[in-house]
Amino acid sequence: MSIIKDKSPVLFFYNDSKKWLMNISKKEELHTHIGVLKHADAIGKEYGSRLMTNKDKYVYLLEPTMYDYIMKIQHGTQIVYPKDLGYIAARAGIQDGQKILEIGTGSGSMTSFVASIVKPRGHVYTFDVDEKFMKIAEKNIRRAGLSKYVTQTNLDLKTSKEIPVTEMDVALIDLGDPWVVLPKVRQMLKGSGCIFAICPTMNQLEKLTIALIENEFTDIESTEHIIRTIAAREGKTRHSFQGIGHTTYLCFARKAFFGRTKAKATTKAKATTKAKATTKAKATTKAKATTKAKATKKSTKN
Amino acid sequence: MSIIKDKSPVLFFYNDSKKWLMNISKKEELHTHIGVLKHADAIGKEYGSRLMTNKDKYVYLLEPTMYDYIMKIQHGTQIVYPKDLGYIAARAGIQDGQKILEIGTGSGSMTSFVASIVKPRGHVYTFDVDEKFMKIAEKNIRRAGLSKYVTQTNLDLKTSKEIPVTEMDVALIDLGDPWVVLPKVRQMLKGSGCIFAICPTMNQLEKLTIALIENEFTDIESTEHIIRTIAAREGKTRHSFQGIGHTTYLCFARKAFFGRTKAKATTKAKATTKAKATTKAKATTKAKATTKAKATKKSTKN
Amino acid sequence: MSIIKDKSPVLFFYNDSKKWLMNISKKEELHTHIGVLKHADAIGKEYGSRLMTNKDKYVYLLEPTMYDYIMKIQHGTQIVYPKDLGYIAARAGIQDGQKILEIGTGSGSMTSFVASIVKPRGHVYTFDVDEKFMKIAEKNIRRAGLSKYVTQTNLDLKTSKEIPVTEMDVALIDLGDPWVVLPKVRQMLKGSGCIFAICPTMNQLEKLTIALIENEFTDIESTEHIIRTIAAREGKTRHSFQGIGHTTYLCFARKAFFGRTKAKATTKAKATTKAKATTKAKATTKAKATTKAKATKKSTKN
Amino acid sequence: MSIIKDKSPVLFFYNDSKKWLMNISKKEELHTHIGVLKHADAIGKEYGSRLMTNKDKYVYLLEPTMYDYIMKIQHGTQIVYPKDLGYIAARAGIQDGQKILEIGTGSGSMTSFVASIVKPRGHVYTFDVDEKFMKIAEKNIRRAGLSKYVTQTNLDLKTSKEIPVTEMDVALIDLGDPWVVLPKVRQMLKGSGCIFAICPTMNQLEKLTIALIENEFTDIESTEHIIRTIAAREGKTRHSFQGIGHTTYLCFARKAFFGRTKAKATTKAKATTKAKATTKAKATTKAKATTKAKATKKSTKN
């Protein structure tokens, strides 16, 4: 049985919009507009129990989930929302043991979510250039107990010539101009590795899709995810009056090799710049494709 | 670098609706309406490479992700879709090390997805009564390489008096009448543990919500998830003409204790039957609540 | 050219959430938090012109459309929204010359919209029992200049034995329990006339659909309508962050005669009560259907 | 009572995807895969009655609505869908007596819908350049009995210097490049008249919005409309499994005059070319705006 102790993390839950995530501290009180609670009263209780405030309101003592940590991060900074995070995990098949590259740590919400899934044998390598955000992210990741599974680096992958990591299973990009880092991301991803970019605008989806083709990615998919809350009540079930607006679009793809022999492709990938990618794309003319096709056919005959 | 060998799993990918997931078998050929491929030609290639069929079509050799395994299961049986699975994982905060209860194994798609996240230290305990489906699920879970993390049991939790597992972090219910097992699920869940039910109809959401309140669950949330595909193309970006219809609604909640002392709550929970739950709910009148409230207040003063 | 005069209706438009609909009154001023405007300054201007407030904000002088009248009604009372009204008009094919029955006048938003389409040769017969609302509706309909095309009656069609109108082209029902009036609505509708009910909950859709079948309606369709606003801006086009929530579901159907000869059907329709409808529905067993089918076949052979 | 006669239009309705719209012709038969019906058997029946085919299927004899005419047009050509048409009517406040300009007649579905609303005192002026489509549209409009209220003209408003109509209440544009005709549309619209453009892509919305601002339109709104069908059945109510995909986005605006005196504005509008519009937009710098603002303020003081 999970009993709350001093220092235990607790989500004080009144309802979905009034909830407070904190660690129990014996002598502290929680002051809210629905009344006051003593932390000490929570100690010794099982998670799920409830306390009553001095204003006669019940507050539940819940064991925080990753969702609660993410929604806490939400206050004050921009986050990737659970509805979008969930699809990223499911579509890219993120799982225990994977190595994840993240470009644009932001407040660390996506970092934490992904780390909680790939741990204990996997790892998240996350890069950002904003010192202030990096500190916020570090705090958020630590609070969720995931620091061990995350390496934060202050490095601008748009300009750096360094290839800090390789053979990544999945790359997550949260930049305004994700196409800029594509050639570099290719070098860090393993063959057929997955990429996901957070694209708030349609223009980003469009530009990125063009760049993904140029950079030899396949299985490209752009989606948006709408979550609708339903007020289920006896005899009066309907969708909620409160609508949930746009958060972001998502762009997914997988690293491929466009018909070159393995050895050459690798060499080429290393040298890839945006300009070259364009040239290469142009060079993939029908004529060339046909020649190669013949060669392939021949080999399949042998 | 990940090189394809004999016996390696490969997703032969032409496009999103034409793809084949199988293990490489040196002497086999893949026969499709876009042409024929020899498995042998894939051996030695890096994942992400492509082969050309004898009809001049390129097919990519992708390393299968959990998504690919789930979508493969889809053929012929009903599955929980990635858009819904993703939200389940994100909302319940499923992560490495958790113990998951699943009632209604079905074809094993949700089982596999969840197992891939909780491994290696977590486990999925899944229950079903349909022998035929249990075999299909077993095959699907094995193919995804997850058998080690899943225990499949043929047991009807609607009628059985057995409590086969306890202290589960999350319970997933995929039954036509999820409310029937709620009292039992309570006993198997840890305090403030999460529940998710797959509810294809609004009537199920409504009935389940009522039962969740009766059975002392909190943070109840019903949602639906709409995924819209966007055709991102230069100068012509728009949503896809093909719409994606209804799959299921989802109902989430967390196990709570409604104002009883911990000890009593546990006893009561064990004895709970549907009939009793109803009576109890009725008895929670304002008067009673007020009395209890006073008692609680007194104790918080001490 | 449309020039604004004294008494002309004008929509003072600053943006979609700050706009004021009123008639020009030579000596009045419009006082808003974006500044003050003199009505007199609008006189003599062409519709579409703009004035500047004393706080340097531009306000456009627009000629009010039916949409503006409806959105004005919105303040303070519940309305049927344009997205839903539009579908009602398009699906039922509402047009000039039709006779419309409305049960539940409410604030008169749907009444006004429909009257603006069926005029000058059509008419709306609207019924309500709430004196207070009837006065609000009357004012709203008059303001939109449509009183001539609307007859408002204080009559409870749920209990009254009167059949105040017949041969209606379309019936619009905005009641909490629309199924109660169905037998009566049948008598007022012409053959194959259309019905539309405003149903905010799924339970209403379900109950009404069952009742529509019992009462011999066909082409039954339940829908919901989601409007999403798009912020189209150079290089940054995306859906709006602000979501628009649930308003209502809509239920459509057309009056049919279930396999009876014309003469009988009419007689029966007059006598129809809810109880009878149920009995009748039950009586439509396979056996009976088969017998009738044979008869029909015979006649088609002749 | 509406009785079906020889030559009467009838929608033979089996279900939403199997329905046939035609005029009764005494000696004809309707041959379908659900059996054969003799037109003669419909004569003398009330609309709403049903006939049985020789395969024992019931078919309802419905009086066609404008919706039925539009959905019939759908077969073989692209149409604007009722969900979108309805919003156009409701948002622009289309009603009896209005004069409507349509650029891009297409198959005449929007033409017919709008004509059915503005008749008998209003009129639709529609322009297209494709002779083949104009003939299709003519047939569709005639079948719906609306020829009297529509003037079809073969004229390319993109290039023509002619201003064939003026003082239009509403302009509907269904062109791939709606921005090209904006200066011309301005001249044909009355002050504060409404414009609606059918824009299947996000790129069109973006380009058009920029052009609308340049061409002095206000109240600009881009929307998309999602219709979801609900299968309402006893105890099993849910959204339909079949999703309805993207049709088009819609862009709405109203003609305004940006702070110029009425006379000047008109002159300018006439002279407007695309190039000029751009220059003008650039010139509207903050500095200039301020100057103008002062001038306007002065005049309002006098």
Note down, in words, how this protein is organized.
The structure is a homotetramer of 302-residue chains. Chain A is of the alpha/beta class and 302 residues long. Chain A is built from nine helices and 14 strands. The first copy, chain A, is 33% helix and 28% strand. Chain A has an eight-stranded mixed beta sheet with strand order 9-8-7-10-11-14-12-13, with helices on both faces. Chain A has a four-stranded antiparallel beta sheet with strand order 2-1-6-5, covered by helices on one side. The longest helix of chain A has 16 residues, at 286-301. Chain A starts with 8 loop residues before the first strand and ends with a helix. The relative contact order of chain A is 0.09. The model of chain A is unreliable at 261-302 (pLDDT under 50). Chains in contact: A-B, A-C, A-D, B-C, B-D, C-D. The interface between C and D is large, with 97 and 97 residues.
Index terms:
homotetramer; 302 residues; alpha/beta; eight-stranded mixed beta sheet; four-stranded antiparallel beta sheet; disordered C terminus
